[in-house]
Fold each of these.
Amino acid sequence: MKKFAFIFLLSIFLLNSCTDSSPEKKATTVNEMSKNNFGLVIHGGAGTILKENMTPEMEAQYEATLKKAAQKGYEILQNGGTSLDAVEQTIHILENSPLFNAGKGAVFANNGKNELDASIMEGKTLNAGAVAGVTNLKNPISAARKVMENSDHVLLARQGAEEFAALQGLEIVDTSYFYTEARFKSLQKAKMGNQDKAAYIDPYIKEYKYGTVGCVALDKDGNLAAGTSTGGMTNKKWNRIGDSPIIGAGTYANNKTCAVSSTGHGEYFIRAAVAYDISAMMEYKSMSLEEAAKEVIQNKLKKMGGDGGIIAIDTNGNLVAEFNTPGMYRAKVDENGNITVGIYKE
Amino acid sequence: MKKFAFIFLLSIFLLNSCTDSSPEKKATTVNEMSKNNFGLVIHGGAGTILKENMTPEMEAQYEATLKKAAQKGYEILQNGGTSLDAVEQTIHILENSPLFNAGKGAVFANNGKNELDASIMEGKTLNAGAVAGVTNLKNPISAARKVMENSDHVLLARQGAEEFAALQGLEIVDTSYFYTEARFKSLQKAKMGNQDKAAYIDPYIKEYKYGTVGCVALDKDGNLAAGTSTGGMTNKKWNRIGDSPIIGAGTYANNKTCAVSSTGHGEYFIRAAVAYDISAMMEYKSMSLEEAAKEVIQNKLKKMGGDGGIIAIDTNGNLVAEFNTPGMYRAKVDENGNITVGIYKE
């Protein structure tokens, strides 16, 4: 009898041990280590951002604006505000700065206009809203939020989106608001180089860069949100829409897993469904946010030839910024208000 | 010693048995049963399609057109053509028929125009192309293919997409081409009912239906492709874009897993990333195509409140049509040329 009892106990142990060693269990344990009760990550674009091309003055300007935006989001979350409010208002600061390719600093399309895209999603309800190709809205991220909250739709485009935003009382600006000399020169340069090629040459760092700003946040109630806003690519033609207004590519949030905002060569991000893929790997393969982000950005996307990066936060407040380019403007804030700003590879 | 040997063997057995019972192993076996070396599935929309609302004449017309389209695709594949050609040319037949909400039969937007969306993707390269809100292209699916093959972009919108398609030599039609009395009456009816509500009342079946046509195919070289084309929702406002031109929502193809085309309440399909989700469940959870399609359409999408369905084919030629509405116009063709047409629930 003793022998059988021993075998029985051993069997139970072995069955348990093989359950324990499954990836599902392992990752759950990793995920269960809560990093922050609340927090946020922001980005201001990824690309060939190299220290040798940057002046100390420009570096200081980028850092100060990223810090200001992160601080704003932190205050909202610290005061018990929603992740949705934190995302929207943090992005306002980036949209209102001429430094980033979104809102005020948006690049010029081939037709000499600024065509802006944005999207937002909340993890609790999986509600989402987006606008594409708007030309007269000061803060496209707020238009995306209005689409989410006050329409039956997810994605509205161009004049239609502008009419809807006007009905919602959002701030309309003259299209000249988006004129910045530096961006206009970038368009001329791009046109001289290749009439048909859309790209984004950052006038400040004199290099190839993907613009776009974004923010992901976790609030004290455990709700995730993500938002992205962009001017797209300099010299873009034919009313091209990139990944920023595409839910699942440029933006995704799900309280089960994580919130993600992308920046990079949008066409690859759409084809790879980048933002949703990170969530799917966490949900279906029980990977941690860090593992999933690394797999998608450093392996899958790179193999396809796609440059760029993402910021993300999971339900445990893990803060991630993953990119396969030399640099990405970014900032992380933890629940203690510690802000870490980064520009180049660490 | 004998006791230890017995325990050792039992341990090996238990460890093995728990590995064998993992879902990964089970599903791989199911997937390995090849159904067809080539084949295709098409759809012409899902919704409240009930036999009692349908005349025998209308039923015969729908069935004949679905059969003609399926036959066309089969001939291309049988002769060694690509899945991409089969998808494009099959969809042409559906776009050129007034019966379906795509191309010729597209519904009217609130502004009295017909605004068409389409997308296409090939599983071998993960290349994709799409157009949104085009008003003068006879076959939007071909414009999507041109975007994929002859531009650096994935998604072009409205006038820009029309200009690009014209440069590519595609057939431009007068906007009056898309006038059909039945659809125009549907718009008037929708406007009378609720000025702001976008919906799709099918004039033939007098019921609520999601239009959209689509095709997924596997060719003799083992390459998958998927395509979707639609007129969107009757009475849609503000240049609303649904899921049909969104890669990952309305259309997805990946030679690793499957090709999917969606039809339904587009906003839910975007938020749930329906087409990519089915592929992700196959890739990450080793589910069969049937299992993944059922889980997404009957469980996840339904819980969110989303109506509609998908057609799909995997690398082993399994043919799937899954919908959570009373009916979906559909047809399947196997490698022997057997065509199965369906309208209502089986």
Amino acid sequence: MRQIHLNAFDMACVGHIQQGMWTHPRDRSAEYDTLGAWTRLAQTLERGLIDGLFLADVLGAYDVYGGTPDAALRHAVQVPLLDPMMLVPAMAAVTQHLGFGVTVNLAYEQPFTFARRMSTLDQLTGGRIGWNIVTGYLDSAARAMGFTNQMAHDDRYDLADEFMYAVYALWEHSWDETAVQRQPGQFTDPAQVRRVVHNGAQYRFDAMALVAPTPQRTPVLYQAGSSDRGRVFAGQHAECVFVNGGSKMAVARLVADLRARAAPRPIRVFVGATPVLARTTAEAQALLAEYRAHSSTEGALAHAAASLGIDFARYDWDQPVDASPTEAIRSNVESMTRQLGAGWTKRMLADRFILGSRQPPVVGSPAEVADELQAWVAEADVDGFNLSRTVAPECWEAVVDLLVPELQNRGVYKTAYAPGTYREKLFAAGPRLAPPHPAALARAS
Amino acid sequence: MRQIHLNAFDMACVGHIQQGMWTHPRDRSAEYDTLGAWTRLAQTLERGLIDGLFLADVLGAYDVYGGTPDAALRHAVQVPLLDPMMLVPAMAAVTQHLGFGVTVNLAYEQPFTFARRMSTLDQLTGGRIGWNIVTGYLDSAARAMGFTNQMAHDDRYDLADEFMYAVYALWEHSWDETAVQRQPGQFTDPAQVRRVVHNGAQYRFDAMALVAPTPQRTPVLYQAGSSDRGRVFAGQHAECVFVNGGSKMAVARLVADLRARAAPRPIRVFVGATPVLARTTAEAQALLAEYRAHSSTEGALAHAAASLGIDFARYDWDQPVDASPTEAIRSNVESMTRQLGAGWTKRMLADRFILGSRQPPVVGSPAEVADELQAWVAEADVDGFNLSRTVAPECWEAVVDLLVPELQNRGVYKTAYAPGTYREKLFAAGPRLAPPHPAALARAS
């Protein structure tokens, strides 16, 4: 039976995708700013043999709705927000197998310092780090970093391409596999370490990497763009792709396209899903109603406004939204129009974004939710799911205690972690990227 | 009795200041790349009520000696090297009181992303983070970041000044103390959050901080420059100053100058020291001989060459070194000439740098070492010591098990941690910087 991979999809903030849940009396998401909340989460996920914790990030506030960040602040919509990389070492210290996929926007990083930070995490986690490559889409983030506005969409991917080759050289080319010898008089053999000289359009540097080869060298590469240019990038670089939105049929077309672009490299495709799980259908429906009663419509609209580049504060509830977004987030709007139909309204959108992860929640008993996930695998050819949280931590406990055993009983979920690094666990292959991936081609030995 | 503060001074690499110790059979510094080594160290230090772990960092390789990084690589002189910030969350998770002073070179950071990273650490550690502000001195680091060489020394401090005001605004001005309300409909009060608009010579941005007020807001500020311009900077910004090199009398003059510049703000001054401790004088002398037998002269010279900007590979052992360094590290060379006298040679330098932390090791029984530390406090008016490692972890165990009890018996060392944040512990005052410090003046509420 084809195995299903599960990631927990979370963010170092109060409201990630489901807005308002922090007002639920059992919710503890406002503890996002304590180490204990994250180490407990990691241990829960590892108990459920969850493949990885996928951490979102964004570098600006959501200020499109009403032209201010006020709604985002009021409803704790991804603000306040911590740096997700800093959560990983503490979680790694209390787990042995859980992978970590951390979102970092490369547009505001320098290759040399970023490469060292990622290498440090790969080393300290024993090869359990992944990187969700993003180039950003918020003007507010661009302004925070000293630019007047966001780069054009396709230019961002050109920048990203160059950045990738720069960090591949640092991760794969600078140190030979056997450079560290640990023999008296020769801790490292200098003949096996070389400088990387990069003279590109966007980046220039001349340096040897400071970190010796780590278990995976290049972290597991995640990517989530579904635009034309985004798919070209994914085909070249991504090992895992996170897709969102649309029917199974629409996702199936996207998945087929992504696999064709990556071939002959295998890729793992994860689709977003928000399970609302209980022992029985009736209990799950009751839970959904309870969660909905705590959801924040204004928070959801503030989030959607930024994702789509449309100020919903200007629209009436049932007025068709004039969806002519900037080029930067066109693919998000197109995806929304595919899901809601032409002439969609703010009301339709608010319904969709609440408990939705841009898709309707998957509500039901363990068997019903498992059926739906298996249907996605069968019909859309996805490899797994990025599961969003609702009321935490009970939503994670439900996944671990109800869904995972159901999937195991069906023979579609592992009963123990595979050995090795995150990459080995995901692909049942080696710890390092293999040709024809460009990171492997950058390797000197 | 005046209390003595102790920091452990370490670095995420094999050879920090004492080169070659990794070849000693009891040394475990080659485990620098495991989380367990750091969590064990943190627990040992907290057992000894050590104030903080001060982590050095550098962004380039030492390639002045012989014009290549070969000697640094062979002897593991601060390379390979991990990102020190990533060590903190794991250590914080297993301790409650230990402070962390992390070196970050601001010259290659953007204020917005750096401020968020530091705020995240302040939040996750419960207010136990400090920042050792450096502007770098290595051409190799500048080239790694895309510059052709290092900025001029005083220009770096002008850049640093502007950077500090930028991050103060993000840490202190952007969010009011009571902005986070955690009430339904109002997690954060938007009226209490404001954008920082910075239009400086070096940095421009327009953003609200993403992190809510953390326990200390601004981390405890360490600084180590002793040049004229460095002292001006320290007088304005530093709360703790790390001084190195020279006689007690010379350090006393430097300390008096620093205190005068900072007044009326109190500062804590730490001087570097390398204890070689055992139960008896004879055992300590035997230990020193044992450590010296494992020390690496070439490693020490590779380190010194970079610190002083002088290629010692070109000199005979007893030839006076022509010390005309670049402006960037002039103060280091002047300090060395004060210590060794005019016409100093490579041989004198190698003797000094081995087991030296730029000062002779403090060797002896607990009583002898305590006498010497108290003499430093009495004669040089320092507040404490940054203790370098020799053979680890036994050197830390000796500090905790032998030196600390001796100091406690003399009434000059705490018998329990003070409550509160790192700043409260160090200054017995509030968790936030107070006026007239410019960070406090930046605060909006």
